[in-house]
């Protein structure tokens, strides 16, 4: 499966929540997409519920199946609770951290900034969105990219919401990945235990 580039509203309606960002379509049509979207919902099997939760995480963070499987394996072998480790690793991705710092308005936009070499990590250009950050690493905007309108607009409209595991220096236009977040600090509505159960079958 290739990375999803279709309408965001369709995905938000599929899961019943704005997982790809605020969406007016979800407020107007709070039911699934397609001609049977309004129909009576059938009771989902246990497998279907678990699979839906996995798909939700993949769409939220923009991860493909092979990447997700590798990420889950890393979470399994890491010390701690597998489900929480998985979300921590998702949050430590470079594209997600660029989004959390407010450099980009969405994760999709953050992925594009990273791919187009506008982002540096510890002074070096990194163009791999899935790059896994380690605590203490510095993330910044490349010198010649600081005047980009997209970045300036995003930073000026930067959400006041602060995340405890990252910090941002507006003057230097650099951020720091302080530590992996705790589970209760991650705002996404995800039941990671269902994903663990899915992979343990």
UniProtKB/TrEMBL annotation:
Residues 92-156 form the RNA-binding S4 domain. NCBIfam families: PRK05327.1, rpsD_bact. Keywords: Ribonucleoprotein, Ribosomal protein, RNA-binding, rRNA-binding. CDD domains: S4 (cd00165). Part of the 30S ribosomal subunit. Contacts protein S5. The interaction surface between S4 and S5 is involved in control of translational fidelity. HAMAP family: Ribosomal_uS4_B. Residues 22-46 are annotated as: Disordered. One of its GO terms (molecular function) is rRNA binding. PROSITE patterns: S4. It comes from Fibrisoma limi BUZ 3. Belongs to the universal ribosomal protein uS4 family. This is Small ribosomal subunit protein uS4. One of its GO terms (biological process) is translation. It holds the Pfam family Ribosomal_S4. The lineage of its organism: Bacteria, Pseudomonadati, Bacteroidota, Cytophagia, Cytophagales. One of the primary rRNA binding proteins, it binds directly to 16S rRNA where it nucleates assembly of the body of the 30S subunit. With S5 and S12 plays an important role in translational accuracy. Residues 3-91 form the Small ribosomal subunit protein uS4 N-terminal domain. SMART domains: Ribosomal_S4, S4. One of its GO terms (cellular component) is small ribosomal subunit.
